[in-house]
Design brief:
Structural class: alpha/beta
CATH class: Alpha Beta
Order of helices and strands: EEEHEEHEHHHEHEHEE
Number of strands: 10
CATH superfamily: P-loop containing nucleotide triphosphate hydrolases
Strand order of the largest sheet: 6-7-8-3-9-10
CATH architecture: 3-Layer(aba) Sandwich
Radius of gyration: 19 Å
Strand content: 15-25%
Distance between the termini: 20 Å
Number of domains: 1
Amino acid sequence: MVPETGAPRFPEGGRDGLSSSIPVQEDDTHIQVTPSREGADGNGAHPFAPDGNGAAPRGDRLDATPAADPAGSGTMIVLERVTKIYEPNVVALDDVSFTIDKGEFVFVVGASGSGKSTMIRLLLKEMEPTSGRVVVGGRDLTRLKRSRVPLLRRNVGCVFQDFKLLPNRTAGENIAYALKVQGESKASIRRNVPEVLSLVGLSDKTGSLPDELSGGEQQRVSIARAVVNHPPLLICDEPTGNLDPDTSVGIMQLLYRINRAGTTILMVTHDREMVDKMRKRVIALEDGRLARDERRGGYTS
């Protein structure tokens, strides 16, 4: 992985933007949380960075067995000659190979129908490749037992274009629900929800329903929900697709900060301007094939 030389320079965001100076009562279903009175962390530490002793917050990690990673313990994603064919003989991915290291920020670009959505579904083990291997966090998904798929999903955060928030739950409850279904304790939920809302700049929106939030605020809640479990990998599918340019800047600054804290980010996007500004690694798909892989690329070659 090529080391980054510094944060990209963004213009000031609008209502939902972040300052460009920032380095990038209860029952079975409802959890009452209290907004944090501090920043992301009292001592400046990232709330989902490793603990002070260097240990990850959860012991049950996908990369807990580095020897299972055929490309070495420093890799997060490996696609090895992956082909996916839908019936009747529609080729979605055709012999695609690439490796993404831990801590990278990678854009995936390409026209509609180029194979981007299929790639995401393979990484989440929502389907199987026709041939080839898919490795995430050191685990070969083509050999991963169905009983282990929930572990995969706990270790891969997802952010979508349409937010996918529960409409009848507040911002805090949406995040709390994600923790509850993963078996987190009530004490852990009370602690983590305010922390992650503070991270995304929404401490004062804990009790707001989605329809009381702007589009940018809803996406920031979606990001908070995706990272509250400290996943080593975050997959973003068009996270700025429904947002105006100023709001998109704020979302990208937030994702940049999350990446700088150590989270690997794979982002599918059509946002040409943002890709060109950030100059991160770019993987381009065309008609199901890997057309381009550039370490500091733009939207087009």
